[in-house]
Amino acid sequence: MPDHAISPTRAEDYPEWYQQVVKAADLAEQSPVRGCMVIKPHGYAIWERMQTILDRMFKATGHQNAYFPLFIPLSYLEQEAKHVEGFAKECAVVTHHRLELGPDGKLIPTGKLEEPLVVRPTSETIIGAMYAKWIQSWRDLPMLINQWANVVRWEMRPRVFLRTSEFLWQEGHTAHATSEEAVEETLRMLDVYATFAERDLAMPVVKGPKTAAERFPGAVDTYSIEAMMQDGKALQAGTSHFLGQNFARGQNIKFASTSGAEEFCWTTSWGVSTRLVGAVIMTHSDDDGLVLPPRIAPHQIVLLPIHRTDEEKAAVMEACRKLEAELSAATFGGEPIRAKIDARDMRGGDKVWQHIKQGVPVRVEIGPRDLAAGAGSMTRRDRGPKERVAVPLAEFASRAPTLLEEIQQGLFERAKAFRAERTVRLDSAADVHVFFGAGEGPGEGSARGGFAHVHVADDPAVAAAFDPLKVTVRCVPMEGNDEPGTCVVTGKPVPRRSVLARSY
Amino acid sequence: MPDHAISPTRAEDYPEWYQQVVKAADLAEQSPVRGCMVIKPHGYAIWERMQTILDRMFKATGHQNAYFPLFIPLSYLEQEAKHVEGFAKECAVVTHHRLELGPDGKLIPTGKLEEPLVVRPTSETIIGAMYAKWIQSWRDLPMLINQWANVVRWEMRPRVFLRTSEFLWQEGHTAHATSEEAVEETLRMLDVYATFAERDLAMPVVKGPKTAAERFPGAVDTYSIEAMMQDGKALQAGTSHFLGQNFARGQNIKFASTSGAEEFCWTTSWGVSTRLVGAVIMTHSDDDGLVLPPRIAPHQIVLLPIHRTDEEKAAVMEACRKLEAELSAATFGGEPIRAKIDARDMRGGDKVWQHIKQGVPVRVEIGPRDLAAGAGSMTRRDRGPKERVAVPLAEFASRAPTLLEEIQQGLFERAKAFRAERTVRLDSAADVHVFFGAGEGPGEGSARGGFAHVHVADDPAVAAAFDPLKVTVRCVPMEGNDEPGTCVVTGKPVPRRSVLARSY
Predict the structure, then answer these.
(1) What average pLDDT does range A463-468 have in this prediction?
(2) Domain holding B362: CATH number?
(3) Do both B44 and B131 map to the same domain?
(4) pLDDT value at position B499?
């Protein structure tokens, strides 16, 4: 057996390591349809955990779910010129609504549509059309709706979870009576995403507004949360857009104010996607495979019975079932602990390594000798696979919540320390070039790289200056960042530093 | 105010009554995209209730969720000749993957695909292609996967929830080593659907196999649950298909058996859709609007504070909040009771009628006088709007589970009685013609009609005989139906009666 379950390692070839972790954990795979993935049960179960937690947070902040059509008439996109520039390039277009079987057994598309339909790349235009009908007066505001859906953006260079032609996401769309309320909503949902990323995914994020070049097409302001992957690259993990009155004007979303005057609404939109699964994989996993934070692990604790004789089996299985029941009665993160017994008839070593590669946070082996000693043999996914601890079975369930919390916090602290080590403050364009320069620093696919906090203006000259490095301005951090300075490219004064990085 | 909140009434114009109930309850509406509906928050919340309960039942029977691509290559459908005949007629076909902005501001589809893609009308072919890769040996079986997804079947005559070009559903797809296991799975999931329909939707169903003419294209056997709507028509509320080895052969889904021999798998598929929302509406609602069984009502109890002065308001709101908390701590159907306070500033009558039209099972009004008496004024949606009962506030929460169970059971019993009244046994083709004849019996859109239990053979002559009446064989009931006889059309001996009805 090699030193590590995943080959190549992160240091050897990070992009290929990622593909191999996905494969070894049985999360997803490419489908026969170009750019579209199949999300396998273990990968989908992680997404379901994310959905459950986020959905609860959306509802707690007053949002309701609804569902809008998959298809958008071409003319709706034409109404939104700026939006089209950004999105209309790579869309799936439906042109026919019927198939006929030809004499050679081939199917022929027939029933040509009068107006082609676009498979939604995002739903601002179709939802806006409905809001224009539904909103009459200030009494109808705020309109706070979220949709869980699939969207399609044709990808030429797909990567599983990170960039796929079809992906699953949620998109919130809200309408408000005032600019202030809409900005407040935009920032509230940014905070929801940041809390979710840090508390549940154990993934530290930097949150802040984007520069004009990185803004959502048609938005006044786009805010994002940016996480650092283990190759030092940034991954945009969620966005929240203040759309001003831009979409409301384009789609005629008006309301009668309390004074009776007719005004355009102020709208927002915000979303996260199955990309978050990729973010979690790349934040925590190691050279043995997936590492999952307990809060989003489909199973947090796996119990592995060990036995030879039927008599041993009966005793061990009884102990396992008792422990499983006790664990299910305990809670962690406000939910019952998710424990399962893996009693499959297969080689013990293979079974253990499967759970390691799938990222189960805690494994407890229980055999006849353990039973005699009233103890199980525990291993933690966040520690080395040989680091065994004897745990008293009678007390294990009552201690499990603390154990899971310790693992959850430990992963978060580790990720924060990793980010801190790879974050620098730079004060000249030359230093930025050195830090990101392919010759002297980390290049594409390197395990180094990082975040550079730099004073830069929101100016096309900045984007142009760093474009050869494939480095972009990720966002302007909103917290702990009050140091004014002058732009290292344009010399303009700027109130705070921005984060520069290569990105996914 | 008219006698009833919904106009026309069921007796006056049943199809139009249905549309008006949907509108008055704010469940859904037509979108600008032909045949596609927008599911509004109240309608979607009902679907979420259905999803939550069904998902729990699927997982309890060993299934896992996964996600497969929206698009199916045209060639996949060509492989399944019989399947194509049934489904390929009305599909959305994607032919281009890019849009370009023309000089006149119009968008032009470009980037023609080498092979057109079909938006999934159902996923047997794409899931089968993955199963062929995933399944190697008997150790990989059974494969038990479910998908929650949107599907598209172009509809020329759409009706909200009942028949829409895009709809939401779940589709289970399983593969087994033996025919027996696959048949067992098919029937197990039919039972899951029947239990869900009767226990949760309070909707009595007849379950049984379909005749050849009504079978899923490519299936060996299709089983359905059939419910009776208030116009006497049948609504197919769920189907479970035993696919034999038909799809496995077409898609090469093979496994090495315990003896080492290579064999084709035996597969099943089963699904229910947002059509169930339409079924619930038409089963229980009345001329005042929607009536929801408590188990699937997004809110089961609404508390309506009544007050004039600020002092009254403080006391009444405090009592409401206390009761809401007590109700949320009580359970019904294994879940916390879903109660909410409606403190919106609007006319009390309008507010009450909104809850009536939206189908909230229980309303409790609490005003200063009620408070002084320690009681609230309760009205039930399943009784007349003026039938008020004083309920002691101190005991209401502890009595609520029994109250909700009584309402749930009452709706089920009422629906069963309705069906029993409109179900007949007929022993000649002439009687069938009289029962369904437009001249003497109920016609299209009538509030009469019903189920006729008749001895008929599974024979095209039977379908042909009743086609002029727009009557079809819905299924052959599996329970309480052991009376042999001879087919009223062909004279062939048959072991049991079938259910004939008009249908949605």
Answers:
(1) 94
(2) 3.40.50.800
(3) yes
(4) 97
pLDDT at residue B442 tops 50: no
Contacts of B118 in chain A (CB under 8 A): 99
The total of structural domains in chain B comes to 3
- To the nearest whole Å, the CA of B3 is away from the closest chain A CA by 28
**Terminal alpha carbon distance of chain A:** 33
pLDDT tens digits, residue range A272-311?
Answer: 999 999 999 999 999 999 999 999 999 999 999 999 999 9
CA B195 – CA B55 distance, rounded (Å): 14
Contact A165, A258 (CB under 8 A): no
Instruction: Say what the pLDDT of residue A443 is.
Output: 42
A402 in reach of chain B (CB within 8 A): no
CB of B336 within 8 Å of a chain A CB? The answer is no
User: Which of A88, A94, A111 has its CB closest to that of B107?
Assistant: A88
The tens digit of pLDDT for each residue in A85-113 reads: 766 689 999 999 999 888 888 899 999 99
Which chain A residues contact residue B39 at CB under 8 A? 66-67
Residues A68, B38: C-beta atoms closer than 8 Å: yes
Q: Which of B95, B107, B130 sits opposite A95 (nearest CB)?
A: B95
The answer to whether A92 contacts B94, with C-beta atoms less than 8 Å apart, is yes
Would you say how long chain B is, in residues? 504
Residues B239 and B346 placed together within one structural domain of the fold: no
- Do residues A33 and A150 share a domain? yes
Residue B33 buriedness (CB in 10 A; 0-12 / 13-18 / 19+): buried
**pLDDT on residue A86:** 67
Are B73 and B220 within one domain?
yes
**Complex ipTM tops 0.85:** yes
Per the structure, the complete domain to which residue B459 belongs is given by 423-501
CB contact under 8 A, A65 and B45: yes
**Within this chain, do residues B91 and B222 fall inside the same structural domain, yes or no?**
yes
- Mean pLDDT value of segment B490-497: 97
Shared domain check, B398 and B475: no
CB < 8 Å from B in window 455-474 of A:
none
**Contacts (Cβ under 8 Å, ≥6 apart) of A264:** A245, A248, A249, A253, A254
Choose among A71, A88, A91: nearest Cβ to B36: A71
Return the bridge partners of A170, or none: A148, A272
**pLDDT tens-digit series, residues B158-194:** 999 999 999 999 999 999 999 999 999 999 999 999 9
User: What CATH code is carried by the domain that includes residue A195?
Assistant: 3.30.930.10
- Fill in the DSSP letter of residue A198: I
Q: Which of B348, B373, B406 is the last residue of a domain?
A: B406
Partners of A72 on chain B (C-beta within 8 Å) are 33
Q: Is the pTM of this model over 0.90?
A: yes
| CA atoms of A437 and A430, how far apart (whole Å) | 10
Which chain B residues are closer than 8 Å to A252 by Cβ? none
Q: Is B442 found in the same domain as B400?
A: no
A154 and A250 belong to one structural domain: yes
Q: Is B65 on the interface with A (CB under 8 A)?
A: yes
pLDDT digits (tens, 9 = 90+) for A29-76: 999 998 999 999 999 999 999 999 999 999 999 999 999 999 999 999
CA distances from B120 to A109, B123, B165, B171, B201 (A): 14, 6, 11, 12, 28
Domain for residue A8, yes or no?
no
In a domain, A460, yes or no: yes
Is there a domain that residue B338 lies in? yes
d(CA B454, CA B213): 17
Cross-chain residue pair B97–A92, CB shorter than 8 Å? yes
User: What six digits make up the tokens of B53?
Assistant: 């309960």
pLDDT tens digits for range A192-241: 999 999 999 999 999 999 999 889 988 999 999 999 999 999 999 999 99
Comparing alpha-carbon positions, the chain A residue that sits nearest to B90 is A98
Window 130-149 of B, Cβ < 8 Å to A: 130, 145, 149
A237 vs B416: CA distance, rounded Å: 51
Final residue before a domain boundary, out of A284, A315, A345: A284
- The answer to whether residue B37 sits within a structural domain is yes
Question: Is A353 an interface residue toward B (CB < 8 Å)?
Answer: no
